[in-house]
């Protein structure tokens, strides 16, 4: 009975540690979606068009590319938890800056800085969780990153809705001396400070501690997360053996004959790109504007956005329950197929949008079909690509290149996210239906890619990857 209780306590400790590291994902989700409520207010306040507002929204993603690119190297140099703390401070400072901009240009700079912090956190979370999680639970614990992202999305949309209601339903109305959209952006400082505190109380990764020449501390952490019933000295020797056969990963270690990079690195990059090219973040960055563009009022569009976030959370829990049972690859294939069908259906429905009394609107039943298809797309993404890509990126690379390769793959993900985000406003004005048809085509291509190139990693130790 005592042993069982101790085991439960240790599992609870591992869950707390993984959840704390995943708060970086919460910051990503929160920042990604908070702009959804603020975008109309920014556009009206600074009197900018669709191209300019697309750049303001998307510039955070360029900052994220920079943060993700260098985040892995910082984590190897300074440690996982110390780098998390730096990312939290960067994001907190940028949140205050976004709240109090002088003009659209400095708002853009603050959003880029926020992206740097988010990009760093996007690399740190999956890598840290993969390094502290026991193999039997690694898939489910790795799923915490995406769960945190979707919780951040839902929380920001709920906060946006409450702030908009307090301001009388218009995000340009004043509330406590500032416009409502400014409070939406400033609220980001709260989760940033929470991340800073949590990163200060969780232990350092045992693999980093061994790398840094501190095996005693590494054993203490391994005892916390894997239990002390096994041979901890042997686990440390196993990690040391792997580290002795490698050097600290750099970008040079990723070079190969396949267009300049190792094949496994290209697989990680393409996996990351497909996750974004299906257009998922259009739903979370622009859903309010999207639904308004087809005749739904501002208040109802915010409520629809929040309902999509709830569906996103449900799908994420489904993925967490299945990722260690049926594996990574089957979930990706299921998600690709479901996304292709739902996106194609949405594209068909949006083709019926017509101007009515000066605004665009969808007739019946196409309006209802578009809403159902969009939410089914969110569900299929959440139960597959949303979770599994983060899990795979944390575990698919060999130990000798993991941090550097994860940084490159995450940077590619942010860059792909930026491409989709910055182009959507102009593309949707040109032809919303064809835009969604393009996303459906990428979903089909992602199915073919997974079938050919993705190998199952369920149940394998990180030291076995190669």
From TrEMBL:
Membrane topology: Multi-pass membrane protein
Major facilitator superfamily (MFS) profile domain span: 17-458
Highest taxon in the source lineage: Bacteria
Protein name: Sugar porter family MFS transporter
Keywords attached to this entry: Membrane, Transmembrane, Transmembrane helix, Transport
Species the sequence originates in: Nonomuraea harbinensis
Record carries keyword Magnesium: no
Ranges that cross the membrane: 12-30, 53-74, 86-104, 110-129, 141-163, 183-202, 258-284, 304-323, 330-350, 370-393, 405-424, 436-454
Family (UniProt): Belongs to the major facilitator superfamily. Sugar transporter (TC 2.A.1.1) family.
Keyword Transmembrane helix found: yes
Record InterPro entries: MFS_dom (IPR020846), MFS_sugar_transport-like (IPR005828), MFS_Sugar_Transporters (IPR050360), Sugar/inositol_transpt (IPR003663), Sugar_transporter_CS (IPR005829)
Cellular localisation: Membrane
Pfam family, one: Sugar_tr
């Amino acid at each position: 009975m005592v042993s069982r209780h101790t085991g439960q306590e240790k599992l609870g400790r591992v869950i707390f540690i993984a959840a704390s590291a995943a708060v970086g994902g919460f910051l990503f989700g929160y920042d990604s979606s908070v702009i959804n409520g603020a975008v109309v207010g920014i556009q009206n306040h600074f009197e900018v068009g669709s191209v300019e507002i697309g750049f303001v929204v998307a510039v955070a993603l360029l900052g994220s590319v920079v943060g993700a690119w260098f985040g892995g190297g910082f984590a190897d140099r300074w440690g996982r938890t110390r780098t998390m703390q730096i990312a939290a401070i960067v994001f907190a400072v940028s949140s205050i800056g976004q709240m109090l901009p002088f003009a659209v240009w400095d708002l853009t700079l603050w959003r880029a800085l926020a992206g740097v912090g988010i990009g760093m956190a996007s690399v740190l979370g999956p890598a840290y969780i993969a390094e502290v999680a026991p193999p039997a639970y690694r898939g489910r614990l790795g799923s915490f990153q995406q769960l945190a992202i979707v919780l951040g999305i839902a929380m920001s949309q709920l906060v946006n809705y409450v702030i908009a209601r307090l301001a009388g339903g218009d995000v340009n109305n004043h509330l406590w001396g500032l416009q409502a959209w400014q409070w939406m952006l400033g609220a980001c400082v709260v989760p940033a400070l929470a991340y800073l505190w949590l990163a200060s109380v969780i232990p350092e990764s045992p693999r980093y501690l061994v790398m840094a020449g501190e095996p005693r501390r590494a054993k203490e952490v391994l005892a916390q997360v894997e239990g002390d019933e096994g041979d901890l000295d042997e686990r440390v020797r196993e990690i040391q053996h792997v580290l002795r056969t490698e050097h600290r990963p750099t970008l040079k270690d990723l070079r190969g004959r396949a267009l300049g990079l190792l094949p496994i690195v290209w697989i990680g990059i393409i996996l990351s790109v497909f996750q974004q090219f299906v257009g998922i973040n259009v739903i979370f960055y622009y859903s309010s504007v999207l639904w308004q563009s087809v005749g739904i009022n501002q208040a109802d569009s915010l409520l629809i956005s929040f309902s999509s976030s709830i569906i996103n959370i449900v799908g994420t829990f489904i993925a967490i329950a299945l990722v260690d049972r049926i594996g990574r690859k089957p979930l990706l294939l299921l998600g690709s197929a479901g996304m292709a069908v739902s996106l194609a259906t949405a594209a068909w429905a949006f083709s019926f949008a017509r101007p009515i009394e000066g605004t665009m609107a969808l007739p019946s039943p196409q309006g209802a079909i578009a809403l159902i298809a969009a939410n089914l797309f969110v569900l299929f993404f959440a139960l597959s690509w949303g979770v599994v890509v983060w899990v795979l990126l944390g575990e698919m690379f060999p130990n000798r290149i993991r941090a550097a390769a994860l940084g490159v793959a995450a940077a590619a993900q942010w860059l792909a996210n930026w491409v989709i985000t910055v182009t959507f406003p102009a593309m949707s004005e040109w032809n919303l239906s064809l835009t969604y048809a393009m996303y459906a085509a990428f979903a089909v291509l992602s199915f073919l890619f997974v079938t050919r190139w993705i190998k199952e990693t369920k149940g394998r130790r990180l030291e076995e990857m190669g």
